[in-house]
Amino acid sequence: MAVFEPNLREPLARSTAIWVGEIAEAVADAQREIAPAGPADPERMASILVAVVEGLSNRWLAGGITTADARSLLSEATSRLLNQSGS
What we know:
The protein is mostly helical. It has a domain at 42-87. 76% of the residues lie in helices and 0% in strands. It has 3 helices and no strands. The protein starts with 5 loop residues before the first helix and ends with a helix.
């Protein structure tokens, strides 16, 4: 696991930051499109979504859930986050 390898920590942190930034842009675009009552910070929502994806991918890789289940859960989590962004 890269987090336990000192020489891989910084590249992993950098790539994760890039990924979160890209997701934050997508969240901001989605918020503008659906015009929620109280938009949440896109960067914060992106961090939550990345954590959800990482958790689901670990469960999928371990055989705990199917690809269809992972997609369904991610879709539901994304929808709930966008619809509850004012909370």
